[in-house]
Design brief:
Number of domains: 2
Number of helices: 5
Largest sheet: 6 strands, antiparallel
Number of strands: 6
Distance between the termini: 66 Å
CATH architecture of the largest domain: 2-Layer Sandwich
Strand content: 5-15%
Order of helices and strands: HHHEEEHEEEH
Length: 273
């Protein structure tokens, strides 16, 4: 609802800009009509005056035209600035709509399967394509050991990513507090060995954290984080957490069911003998 309100507000701003352009056009037409009338008066007066008076009237006419020209230039500059502002806002809304469309598609993909490996692959693709991350990892919380264990990564080998104790360091603290961490410099390089990412996003289902996304570096074309990026982080964290949690439970249930079914088949085989 808030996002729809923002888009509606921006649409109203665009309409106001269009109305200003329309009002400016009407004003120009009125001023032009006044100028034509004044010129006609001057020409009539000049025709009736002598040479000296004619020169004076010509000077007045030139001054009048210069003043009008300067006024038109100033108004044109104001309208040009408003048009640039309109163009920038249009681009901003277009980018936001594209990101929302991408996020919708990504969310649909996340919830289209209950296979854990497929869900994890989709999460990695979203972080690459929507966030622009180059090196990052997904770590999930193991309740038995109280550790965050890497389960997926891009640009890094899983073997090079150490486990993290819950509540320790940037990653562990982000998981404990449930709050995202952002480095001051997005172009700095995080340390994998020291568990110091430049961005750490907790994966949360309501207030329960099931893991984190730790980003160590961004693609070179990513200059900075925008407001849209922060919204994407928040939305991604919720959708990814739900999809990962559901698929993990389903996969575990399927494994248990397969084990039980194998055991039952073995018992039946023994009874037949």
């Amino acid at each position: 609802m808030e996002r729809e309100s923002n888009i509606t507000r921006k649409a109203d701003e665009f309409l106001q800009i269009f109305r200003k352009g329309e009002e400016f056009t009407h004003e120009l037409l009125k001023e032009n009509e006044k100028l034509r009338f004044r010129v006609a008066q001057l020409e009539e007066t000049i025709a009736q005056a002598g040479d000296e008076a004619r020169v004076k009237l010509y000077d007045e006419r030139i001054k009048l035209l210069d003043d009008e020209l300067n006024s038109l230039k100033e108004r044109y500059q104001r309208v040009e600035e408003e048009n640039k502002d309109f163009a920038n806002k249009y681009i901003e809304v277009e980018e936001e709509n594209n990101n929302l469309a991408n996020l919708y598609v990504a969310s649909y993909q996340l919830h289209s399967t209950l296979d854990f490996n497929e869900v994890l692959k989709i999460v990695l693709e979203i972080v690459i394509n929507l966030i622009g991350a180059e090196k990052f990892a997904v770590l999930l919380l193991e309740d038995k050991t109280n550790e965050l264990v890497p389960v997926g990564a891009e640009g890094i080998s899983l073997a090079d990513i150490p486990k993290v104790r819950f509540g320790e360091g940037i990653i562990g603290n982000a998981a404990k507090e449930g709050e995202s961490y952002f480095s001051g410099d997005v172009h700095s390089k995080g340390s994998i060995a020291d568990n110091k990412p430049i961005v750490c996003i907790p994966l949360k289902i309501k207030e329960h954290v099931i893991g984190v996304i730790a980003i160590y570096s961004l693609l070179i074309q990513k200059e900075k984080f925008s407001n849209i990026d922060y919204e994407l982080f928040n939305l991604l964290a919720g959708h990814a957490a739900t999809a990962i949690f559901s698929s993990r439970l389903y996969t575990q249930s399927e494994r248990k069911l397969t084990t039980i079914q194998s055991f039952m088949d073995l018992l039946k085989e023994k009874q037949r003998r």
